[in-house]
Structures are given as C-alpha cells and as structure tokens.
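Hi X.,

You mentioned you wanted examples for the new student's onboarding notes, showing what a folding record looks like when two proteins sit in one file. Here is a clean example. The first protein comes first, with its sequence line followed by its structure tokens.
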Amino acid sequence: MAVTEKSILTRLYVVTAFMFLFAVAVLFKLVNIQFVQGDKYKALAMERTEKMFTIAPNRGNLYSDDGSLLATSVSRYTIRFDAVTVSDEDFRKNIVPLSNSLSKMLGKPSSHYQKLLRKAKVNKNRYALIARNLDYSEYITVKDFPLFNKGPYKGGLIIEQKTVREHPLGKIAERSVGYENVDENGYYSGVGLERAYGEYLRGVQGKRLKQKIAKGQWKPIGWENIVEPKDGYDLVSTIDINIQDIAHHALLGQLEHYKADHGSVIVMETETGEVKAISNLGRTEAGKYYERLNYAVGEASEPGSTFKLMSLVAALEDKVIDTSTVIDTEKGRWKIYDRTVKDSKWGGYGKISAGHAFEVSSNTAFAKMIHNNYKNDPEKYVNRLMSMNLNKKLDLPIKGEGEPVIRFPGDKGWSGISLAWMSHGYEVAMTPLQVLTFYNAIANDGEMVKPRLIKEVKEWDRTIEKFEKEVINESVCSKETAAKVQQLLKNVVEKKYGTGHGLYSPNFSMAGKTGTAQKNYVSKDPDKLKYISSFAGYFPAENPKYSCIVVIHEPDKSVGYYGADVSGPVFKSVAQKVYATSPLVDEIDMEKVKDQRLDKSYQRYYAEAQKNYKQVPNVKGMSGMDAISILENLGIEVEVRGNGKVKRQSVSQGTNLKDAKKITLELS
C-alpha cells in the first residue's frame, strides 16, 4: 500500500513539475512575443489585413509649340460595391433608385443592376464590380447616387482610380512623342519624348492605406490619401501641329504611291534647330502605314548622293578644287581597281566643272575628284569630314540614336576604293536627322546647331527650365564655301539640267540635293537590289527659315526609285504648304500668288472656290490644312475636329457664302 502511494506521489510530482515547466515556457513565450517580438508580429498582422499602396501621380502634359495637347494623363475610375457594410434597411430602401440611376448613366436596364446588387448582398461580396473606365464627371455623378452617397462604410461605395495616357491629336508624331513604362522593380523603359524627359513628367507617387477584404482584394480605407501624389511637370515641345500634319500626309501619300517599305520626314527651323515636324511611317503586311519606329533618329544608312555636299565642302575647304575645276566624267563609267563607278546618265556628261557635277549629281566626277586629290593623303579627307562633326552622334535626349560611320584609313573595311565610294555616299552611314543637321548648317552659313524637340518645362504658368539654342560647331566651313554651295543647291532645283528641277516652282524658292542609294548592291541577284530615295535641303533658298529631309526606303522599282521622283515631291509639298500657312511675308507676296500657288490638286480646289465665290465649295477628301486655307480665304470661320482628311463638313456644298459664317470640319 505504502509503495503504491509513494509511486502515485512520485508521478504527481513529475506531472506537477512538467506542468510548471510548461507554464514557465508559455509565460516566457508570451513575454517574448509581447515585449521582444511584439512589433514584428504587429507589423505582420497589419501587413496581412492592411497595406500601404502607392498612388501613381498624373504625368505632366506634353504640348505642341502652340499649346495643343500631344499627350496628357486622364483619370479613369472603377466603381465597386461592398455589400457587407450596408445595413439591410438601407439596402432595401435604395436598391431600386440606385439601379435606376446606374441604368440611366451606363445604359444597361435597371433590372441588370438590381440583380447584380442583390446577388452581391446574398453572397456577402465585398468587392462586386459595378462599372469600369468612368471619367471624372461620371465618377462625381456616381458618388451622389442613392445609397452610394452614404460613403464607403454605410453606402458600400468603393472607388478605384487609375491614370491612363492619351494622345488627343491621334497619330501626330506618335513615335516621337513615344511612351514610358515602369516594371515592378522600378526600372523605366520606353521611347521618344515621354522617355527622354520622364524625370520631369513622372511626378511623385502618393500613398494610400487599404484593407484586405478577400483573397487578393484590397479595399481603400476612408476617402483621404496618406500622402497625396504630386503631378509631373508639363513639357512644351517644338512641334508645330500644322507643319506636322502637312509632313505626315505628304509622306503617307508618297509611300502609298510607291509601295515603299518605310520612310521619314523632318522639318527643322534653320536658325534655332527646333524640330517642327518629324514623321516616321512603316508598312504593315496589309499595306497600311503607321508610326512603327523612329527611323529619323535611329536608322543610320548609306546616304548616297546627299553626301556629295559633304565631299564638296571638304574639297573646297582643303582647296584641292574649286567649283570651276574641270573633271572628265569618262562617258559615265570610271573603273578603279576591280570596281566601276557609274553615272545614272548613260554616256556621262563629258568634261564638266565640279560645280556642274554637283548639280547633275555625277558619281564619276565626285569619285575622281576625291580619289585623285586625296589618294596620297586619305587621312586629310577623313579628318576634314570629322572636323565637320560627321562622325559624332548629335547626343540627343531621345534614346536609340543611330551611330554614324566615317571610316579612317586602316579601319576594318577600308580599301583602295574607299575614297571613291565615300565621295558619293557609300561606305559611310548617317541617320536622316544627322544629314539634315549638316544641310541646316550650310543654310546657316556654316553654323551647326543641335536639333531640339523641347522648348521648356512648366508647372502651370511657371517656367521651371528653358532649353535654348545650342551650337554644336560654330563653323563647319568658311562663309565663302557656304555661299558657293548654297548657290549650287539652289541651282539643283532652278536650273533645267539640275537633278531637282522637276520640283521647281516660280512661286517659291527651294534649295537642296537629291539622293539615290542602292541597298544590297553586293548581291548578284538583281531582285535583291533595293533603293533608298532621299532629298535634303531648305527653303526659301534666300534667307532660309526651314530645312527639311525626306528619306524613303525600298520604293517599288517598277513605279520609280530616284530621289527626285520619290522623295522630292514630299519636300516640295511640305515647302509649298508651309509657305501657304506660315507668315513668310519677307520671302513671298501671298496675294500675288494666291490664285496659282500650291500643287495641282490644291489649285483645282482653289480655282473651284474662286469660281463659285458666292457658294461654299466641297472640301471632302482634302487634307485638313488645304481645306482650312481655302475656306478661310473665302472669309469663313473654320472649326476643326480631329486630324487628317476631311470626312464631313457642317455646311454643305453650294450654300451661299452669306449664310455660312462658320463651318465645322470633321477629319478622319
């Protein structure tokens, strides 16, 4: 008996000791959790039930030079319903009037919303979707609907806001305007001005507290943000939407006519370097064109004969020739080692001056001129090109600028024929904008300015930063040389023998150079031979205001491929329409040429309007710029919606002008 009692007592002591130790361990753990790891577990609990979310700020607006919006941020709202927070009585009283209000605004029947709300109530859904992508005015209206006007707790209203980027003017300069994205790690990517000036446009993120209400679903707590987001700054670009519209449609029409692969056009203000228009269009498999890539900035290719200007300037500066130096074109064929340089004119041009060789674009003359004068010292020619900044990037803020190629003797690819081939634009590479920058320098009497796409950064009406004219090279050549080649560039268009004479107009002056470069010329398969057609120059020829380059890749050879035929008309169309819409009063008397200006299609419409001067003409199918010019010259106030060609006009053809004080044009 005693033994049994002793055994029981021993067991009792062991159990008691174990329980005591267990209690001590529990107490220790509680103390540790409460005082040592308390903050950690509190934070973990909060993280699982409440979480701080960032709020993206509104990006700044991007404007054209006249204040038109090129890109803007717009708030869009999603409306959801928390059925749990709403009392049964409030729900019963308000479900019908709320559904009626939603039906009236959103278009679906009231029964649809009644069914949706009742289902959410039965299922205790705390995150039922009501509507997406509402604008600000719709969001304000929804907040005042029955039940929702009681707020997030009693009314169950959940508002989610997001910011989207829109381009009010559609496809105008879309690739140059660009975009910017950010990934989950905060890394930014994108193209165009949006990416280049993202640090100004982004703004500062805000913060908002949200509560977890279901798996993967978070509901904002209260109406207010913890930290309000700060909107980004606005940017004023150099883009002129009128010139941009002209350039875009002129390029598009030519690409379609020649079934070309892609092309670009740039218009730049000569004195300041401000880019007034930049259009890049590529072809889809279906034959449609859109802003595919920024070819003007990013695509470096062999420029062909537009590079003859650089070679001529180099030779004149080094005084190895003068414009009157006579060169034998060798019947249009000149063999150097195992290669033959050919002129486009069979039989050549005979013995001609260097200046005349430029005007008719003789390849043989230029190959002989550069090879024979520099063959004993090729470094001299290349150094001269490099002194004109032709081997350097423009260092643009826009990402992806193409790398110019100017080989030096001894570099990979240099050979005994390199001087001859470089002379007329082969074995070198430049982007359209780099070529234009040099032509612009010649128009500027030798001063090379950096192309610029942004004028200033603003916060409301306050200027944060201004971007001024920047000179890259004060003098790419002497004023004497500049004057000589300026006259030759003018002759290319004005002289009957000039390669650009087909573009000549007595109503306005232009100066420039044609270019036709072969692609895949090393291939022996003639079907693989492609062309790059270009025209670079400026206008007016005297006191130039704008420089312009047009480059079109791979036109259909059966339709045409010479620069004067393919790219030249785009240059002319831009020049003549800019003349018609810009106040170039010092260069042209608009009244004098009023009845005969512009191209044939414009003249036809203009003549029709003048003939029926008492009636409103039909402008459907015309470009917006042409239609505006015609109607405003008839004394009609014009309002334009959209961009492109005229799709509808609010006042019909034949209406008496006295009854048409204002007309609205809807553009496609």
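Then the second protein repeats the pattern, sequence line and then tokens:
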Amino acid sequence: MITSESLGNVHNSVGTENKTGWRKLLSFLGPAYLVSVGYMDPGNWATDLAAGSQFGYKLIWVLLLSNMIALLLQNLCVRLGIVRGLDLAQASKHSYPRFVNFCLYILAQISIIACDLAEVIGMAIGLNLLFGLPLIWGVCITMLDTLLLLFLLNKGMRKLEGFIISLIFIVGLAFLLEMFIVQPHVIDVAKGFIPTELNSRSLYLAIGIIGATVMPHNLYLHSSLVQTRKIDRTEEGIKTAIRYNFWDTTIALNLAFFVNAAILILAASAFFGRGYHEVAEIQDAHKLLSNIFGKLAPALFAIALIAAGQSSTVTGTLAGQIIMEGHLNLRIAPWLRRLLTRIFAIVPAFFTILHAGEEGLGKLLILSQVVLSLQLGFAIIPLIHFTSDKKRMGKFATGLPLRILAWIFAVLIVGLNVRLVIQEIGTWADANQGSANLVHFVITPIAVAIAALLVYIFLRPLLYKHTDQPIYIPHGIAASLDNLEPVHYNHIAVTIDFSKNDQDCIRHALMQGGKKAKYSLIHVVETAGARYYGKQVMDNETQSDVNNLEKYVEALTKLNYKAEAKIGYGGPANAIAEIVNSEGIDFIVMGSHGHKAIKDLIFGTTVNTVRHKVNVPVLVVKPAAK
C-alpha cells in the first residue's frame, strides 16, 4: 500500500547493512534513547517526588509496573514500524475514518502539549534553582529551544541521538551521586516492590506515574524512529532488526526506570523519612536538599532537571511532526510546529504563575501527567489491534500470550482512568455546587463522548476487519508516463544577485533554452529607498546594479543570445514574481545561497516564497561545495 515516509528527511538515513557484532548493535542503538527521555522528564519528577514524600517507598511497584507496560508497548511499536513500515499515526489513518483520525489527532496533540507543559515548567524551575532566574523569565526563555531543535535536526539523526544520550548520561550520573549522598534503606526499598492497595490520594498519583512513564506520544515516536535504520527487507533481516531494537529498548527504558526510581527513593529517604510528607513542589525538594545535605546535592538536582527538560522538548517536536503528518497528512515547517506547540504550553504556565503563584506550578505539573495518562487508551488500543493483524503482520504478528498481556495492561490503564474521571467529576460537583450545571451539561457530556470514541476505536478493527480507509497520499499516485516529449521554453528568467553563483545560474538557463529562447536577467534592488519609492529611486546602489546587469546582457548578446535586463524593487520574492507574471515568462532559474537552517530562519528563503507566487517551473541552482 502506498504511503508517505514517516520522518521523511531522516527515513532510512542510518545504514546497518554489512556490519557485524558490536558494530551492528551500535548501528541500531539510538531510537529507544530518544523515546526514553520522555520517561524521565520534569513531569516524572513531580509525580515521583510527590509519591516518595507522601507514601515513602510504597509506590515503587507502580513505577516497576509502568516500566513493564512501557517495555511491552514500545516493543509493539518497534514491530509495527519495522514490519509494516508505518508509524502508529499512519496505521490509524489506514484503518479509521477521517473524522475519527481528526479526533485522534486532537487528543494526541493535547498529550504533546501536556508533555511540553511539563518541560516548560521543569526548565523554568531548573534555571531558577541554578541561576536564580525568575520563573516568569524562565518560561519565556524556553521559546529559544526552537532554534536548538532546528540546528540538531539539520545535523542528522545520529548527531541528534548523540546529543540526547549525552543529556541522559548527565541525568543518570547526577542521580547516581545523589544516591550516595542520601543513603537510602535498602530493605525498605525492596519492600516497595510489593504491591499495596491504592486509596483515592495514591490512585491519583499512581495514574500520574503511569501517565508520566507510558506517554502516548512516545508510542507514535518509536514506531517512526525505528524506520530511520536502513535494513534488509527479507524475513531474516526484519527478524534481526526487531531483535536489535528489542535490546535497544530494554537497555534504554531500564535506564529510565533507574532515574525514576532514584527520584522516588530520593524523596522517600530525604523527605518522608524525616517527616516532610507534603513535598510535591520541585522547589521545596531543592530547598530541603540544601538544608539537609549541603550545596552539592541541590546543584546536581537542578542540573539534572535542566538536562531532562531540554532533552524531552526535542523528542516532543518529532512526535508532533509524526502525529500531524500521519493523522492529517498536513506538513508545516518543524520550527513553526515547535513554536506553536511551545506557545500552547507556555500560555497555561504563564497564567498559572501570574494567578496561582509559584506554588501552582507543581499541581499543574502533576495534572499534565494525569492528562497524558487519560490519552493512553487512544494510542494503546489501535497499537494492539495493528500488531495482532496476521494478514498484514504475517509471521511477525504478536502471539496469543503477548496479545493477552497487552490487553490486560490496556484494560488496567483504561479502567484506572475511568475510575479517576468518575471520582474527579464527583469531587468537583460536590465542591462546586454553583457549577453543577457546568459539570452536568458540559463536562459529563464531553467525558461520555470521549468514552464513546474509545469504544468505537476498540470495536471498529473487530467489526470491519481488513477494511482499510481510502487515504489521501501527500505525493499523489504515480501517473502513467505516456508523453515524454521534450519541453521547449521560449522565455526564461534568471535571477541575478552579483555573486559567484550568477555564472552557474546563467549557464543552466542557457542549457534549458539554447539560442532560440529569450532571457530576462532579473535583479532586485532591496535598499530602503527602493522599498519605499520603487522605480522612482535612483540612488548609488541602484545605479551600480543597473550598470552591472547591463554588462551581463552585453556579454550574452555578443554570444548571440537574446537577453534583456529587468530591475525589481523592494522585497525580492514579490518583485521577481511580479516580473515573471507580467512578462509571460515560462521558466525560472534561481540561485540558492546555500544557507544553513538558522540563516534561512533569520533571513527567509526567497526561492520558497517565489515558487508559491508563480505558476511556472523553477530550477534552483545551488553553489558547488568547496
């Protein structure tokens, strides 16, 4: 079945063929580490600190259960991505109607915003703890990581993975040192792995822990990232890829479990054991660490918090790209998508600080993780369906024992979430008698509608087995090649900027039209005068540009080519498009400045703007590498 590539710019970009032994293993290591950062982001910190300070070591078993669920689900994602070559969003696009996919996209986007909210708050708190920067400024500064992400994405997948792994190393090392400082009671820690009954308070935190650990957007992300490895598509090659990715996932997620357990154990040892049972705020934890253990422990704590927040924000953007392209077939620039997601996360954090003060951020952090957990069913249920489909997965469909275990975990998560929603709606209605109508006529119907959507997502693959939805293909379906006569251009435009690239542009234009075509050499004057006065301007720069352009025309005329000079004024893209459309030009040759991503972001890309303003072919000539 035809489909667009997931993360097309890095799809199959990392080679694994012709490698053996540890080199083979290293070539597959990476995707799970990008996923694992979501398992140790600032949202996890808030839930782990609250759990450790309020209940000591009693909820470690919830962390272990969450890690087991995560290991199973992430390996199902690996299987889906490698075998079918689809990420979870693309597979949903194939199986569910368009409106349902739109609803799934909205819910997935909410989970990304909730996750990003945790990163915004975590980064702001980390900067405040380490440098004393006010939280309101820290929240605003987090906008700048859009530039960092853009830089990393353009450096390639291996560089991005290396950056993330180095941040994970910093977090892990910081907490390893913290464990030596706080010296937890080993026997009490071991008892924490024994399951205990959950009351209403511990249930809320337990669901927060599950939501913070098994993040919905990580399921989308992992199913796409495994496709960055170029593998042998034979049965043996697919089996090998699944095996190596299993080890990648197991190692990375167990490291994430170590970090989460370390945070909870730190809170239990340092706070619960000393009578501080209500340390849900990261700032309070930092302050108490200073009082109890001196300067080193809180400094390590803040550094690890910043590293965790920064690493998580990168992977959240990749997940946003996968979800948007998979569910909606909508593509926008990564920096713009990142900026929009970050704005949606910053606004609630900003107003929480203004109205509830710094104390409200901790509650907002835990709430964001509960929201993540509520979204889980909408990703888990389709994932289990897709990987159980023997017709499409073939020999790699999940076996019956694994399928039963996956459904048990799904029922557990959905059941806990249903219980929590009913409990919270009831609590809210009792506490706000004046808002009873809002609860009964707005909140309850929304909850019922979402529950109905979840039931539909579960039932449709069973009732309409192997009935794929017709999907829109972003690149279209290949047309029959029945007319391949050469195209002759009569009027060709060449954009001139008096750089070394001019000669290559003119040469490529002449190759297209020969001596039969007419050539318009276009240069745009961009001075302030040109922008305000247009053709009336005749400053020194304009006169110099006109003279230089005429020299090009004279040189072409001597070689028996038909050439003319065209001067535009003001914005380059608008001026070029105006000349092309008014002169009846049928082909354009433009030079690319070869900017890197940051320069393109700052200065803009004239080529990209022009091609959207004209209806003729555009040939882009990039300068040769030195």
